[in-house]
Specification:
The structure holds 2 protein chains of 2 kinds.
Chain A: H1 11-18, H2 25-59, H3 67-88, H4 95-104, H5 108-111, H6 118-121, H7 123-140, H8 144-174, H9 181-190, H10 193-207, H11 213-235, H12 242-265
Helix pairs in contact in A: 1-2, 2-3, 3-4, 3-10, 3-11, 7-8, 7-10, 7-11, 8-9, 8-12, 10-11, 11-12
Chain B: H1 2-25, H2 34-66, H3 77-81, H4 84-96, H5 103-123, H6 131-154
Amino acid sequence: MSGYFFPSWNYSKVYSTASDTSIEPWHKMVTLKFQILYTLWVNHQAFAWILLFHRIMHDNGLTTSYVPVARCYPAFYNVEGMIFMDNISKNNVGKIKDFLLFALNPAEIVRKKKQYNWFLYLIYPAVGWMIFFLQVGLDKFSGFRVFITMLLGLIIGYIAVGAIGFLIAFILARLGMDIRSDQVITLISMSHTYMLFSVLLGLVYRIFGSSSASAFGITGLLCTLLPIYAGIRILGKNKVYLPPLLATLTGVLLMFSWQMIIAIVS
Amino acid sequence: MPKMKLIIISAMIVLFSIFNGLQTRRTSFGFKGFFGTFIVTLLFFAFVFLFQTLYYIVVSKKLVSRGDLKPTEYQSPLDIWLISIPFCVLMVISYLFLNWNVVQVFICTTFALIGMLLGNALGRGGKKWSLMTSLPFFSGVIASTLFTLLMGWLV
């Protein structure tokens, strides 16, 4: 597990210091902060260039859509995040950093055999759903119905992700895998990082006058399936078709939950 | 086993192309028919699949022979492509049952994410950043952007 991508592109130096157990904890914190800042900087540089390039194309009539950026950003973010989190995962980190680790590398939840407060982790996807449905509400409705749509996104997001987590955990347990429901729910919850970023980006686009909530939402949903796929893959290495099938089931259920919210408010 | 995976992936490429063609029929400008978009999507997708997969195989062989990639860490590119099963199923469901006409979003996200996964798999265990191992990632993003531009012009 020594780095996935850009393995030693400045990270090796940081990592060699960060993993040295002989140094004082505050040194570890400094390197950790550096890694966070560095990761964010690299991400935003990449994102900013794509954004600029796309804006130029759009303004010159070469494209009518803002969609590519929505897809590129989670990809950049994901790769950088995985390297970064792979590096810090070897440090003994606290609860907040544990949260960060799980947010950027959710498959780690499956590896760590500990008890998770799944009901707290469920707030995370619920917030993502809330932001997505705020945009859907702004696109489709006006006034109080926007607020209702957003609220339903929050509540149903919390319930739906929890229920899907229980179902997937049940299926995995029936297949004889060593996994608990709190692990699966936390895995699915923390996989929503990609969706959260995507819908936040959609919100930024909306502020600048272009609305494509569904494109950003679906991109986020598809990105959510990747860590779920990766997590299930760790559990059943010889079962090639199980991770894509369970990821498909999760995606379908998430999508129908979205449709349910739209049906309720329409 | 690889034959079965190849059949599944080919079927997915055809499905993506069919639904992109069907979606085009609903637009009132550009390519109005089914076949134009279907053929363009099929060719573009097939090219991206072949390029990404063959490139991955060639580079991973090189990396294994150099000792930069452990044979135990080698992932089959077809296994990586299988992650597009959920994307394809969700595209069909969203089009048929939810009436969301966003096939291109699914296709482009597939390009970008598969490129990213192939890039990750090549870079695993490497000690130095290199363009060679990172190219699948960039090519995925480029293919995604090119496809949107192409569809923007045609449809």
